[in-house]
């Protein structure tokens, strides 16, 4: 079976972990500081705050921006549920708007209509590693005096022009094993605002600027030196990983674009193919089964709009759907949830794997 994802861990990561184990400095320490510095540099951000997961990064970013009860956060329902869960966890209200049918990212044309006096944040997701239309979102945010927090959990090294994702607005990345780089579990917040970084650091560590001296409320959401050591080794390989994903995606698109709807990246956007996702108009479940039988692993990202999850259906008063003419569902989001299918694109694929994926996809179209 060709797996849909596979982390690439080598001798560099092994040596780094052994070095940390031998040092005895297991919790947050120098490896974390070095990782923060290097990740911030990669993004072109002033500061980075490493945490225990991508979800923790989003959660602490909202808290650091002062988001809480009574505030609204405009986002997409076509994402991993953590994107919206963190908004609920800080007591704010997710406001879902529909997506663009070609990129699956939040549709800026629908964002303006969702803004109210309570809107505090616009939270786009760079889905599958393809940047959202930040220029238009930034224009809307500036016009209404709201901030942007980017869910960049899938977008390490993605770019718009020469601007790397994470270098402009507060941005949150995940290092879960399936992501383009991993620390096992982990996350990071990048920001150009020292006060946001400072608030995130306080929330990360019990509200304590120094040991046993507490000025605020906080959690323990620190990253360990073991995780950061893996991250430092992975970060050195990120560019090579991304280039291989892009090359794999190019090969797939070249050979299947006449048969299915392949991923769309806007001109000048660097899509780093966390997922390579096609649209299957009918019988997607049959595609999943058949490809599986023929040795091609697939993924469905995501089978339900976030608001279609049972928890959200049972919590209708806690979120809002903003659709033209007061509609109560988001047609492009729901269509995508029924039709998207991710094929393997990760850097561990061989040329033979790629040829097999093409052959089996084309066979399903004939
Ligand atoms: C992976 C992911 C998250 C959560 O990151 P974790 O590290 O798993 O907590 C949030 N948002 C998106 C879009 C993701 O893909």
Automatic annotation (TrEMBL):
Keywords: Aminotransferase, Pyridoxal phosphate, Transferase. The active site is at residue 179. GO terms for molecular function: pyridoxal phosphate binding; transaminase activity. GO terms for biological process: polysaccharide biosynthetic process. CDD domains: AHBA_syn. The keyword Nucleus does not apply. Transmembrane segments: none annotated. The keyword Transferase applies. Pfam families: DegT_DnrJ_EryC1 (PF01041). The modification N6-(pyridoxal phosphate)lysine is found at residue 179. Belongs to the DegT/DnrJ/EryC1 family. PANTHER family: DTDP-4-AMINO-4,6-DIDEOXYGALACTOSE TRANSAMINASE (PTHR30244:SF34), TRANSAMINASE (PTHR30244). This is Aminotransferase DegT. The lineage of its organism: Bacteria, Bacillati, Chloroflexota, Ktedonobacteria, Ktedonobacterales.
């Amino acid at each position: 079976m060709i797996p849909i994802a596979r982390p690439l861990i080598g001798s560099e990561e092994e040596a780094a972990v052994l070095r940390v184990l031998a040092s005895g400095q297991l919790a947050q320490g120098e490896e974390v500081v070095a990782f923060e510095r290097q990740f911030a540099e990669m993004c072109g951000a002033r500061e980075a705050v490493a945490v225990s997961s991508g979800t923790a990064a989003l959660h602490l970013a909202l808290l650091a921006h002062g988001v809480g009860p009574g505030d609204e956060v405009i986002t997409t329902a076509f994402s991993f549920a953590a994107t919206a869960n963190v908004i609920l966890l800080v007591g704010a209200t997710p406001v879902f708007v529909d997506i663009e049918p070609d990129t699956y990212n939040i549709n800026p044309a629908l964002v303006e209509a969702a803004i109210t006096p309570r809107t505090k944040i616009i939270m786009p997701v760079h889905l599958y590693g393809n940047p959202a239309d930040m220029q238009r979102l930034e224009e809307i945010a500036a016009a209404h005096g709201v901030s942007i927090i980017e869910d960049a959990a899938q977008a390490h090294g993605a770019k718009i022009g020469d601007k790397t994702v994470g270098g402009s607005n507060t941005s949150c990345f995940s290092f879960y094993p399936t992501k383009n780089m991993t620390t096992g579990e982990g996350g990071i917040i990048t920001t150009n605002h020292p006060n946001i970084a400072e608030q995130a650091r306080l929330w990360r560590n019990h509200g304590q600027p120094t040991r046993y001296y507490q000025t605020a409320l906080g959690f323990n959401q620190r990253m360990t030196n073991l995780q950061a050591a893996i991250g430092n080794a992975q970060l050195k390989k990120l560019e090579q990983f991304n280039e291989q994903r892009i090359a794999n995606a190019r090969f797939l698109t070249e050979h299947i674009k006449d048969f299915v709807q392949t991923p769309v990246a806007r001109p000048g956007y660097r899509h780093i193919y966390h997922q390579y996702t096609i649209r299957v108009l009918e019988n997607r479940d049959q595609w999943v089964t058949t490809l599986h039988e023929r040795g091609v692993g697939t993924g469905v990202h995501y089978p339900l709009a976030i608001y279609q999850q049972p928890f959200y259906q049972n919590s209708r008063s806690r979120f809002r759907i903003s659709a033209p003419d007061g509609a109560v569902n988001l047609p492009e989001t729901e269509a995508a949830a029924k039709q998207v299918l991710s094929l393997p694109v990760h850097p561990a694929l061989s040329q033979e794997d790629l040829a097999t994926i093409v052959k089996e996809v084309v066979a399903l179209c004939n």
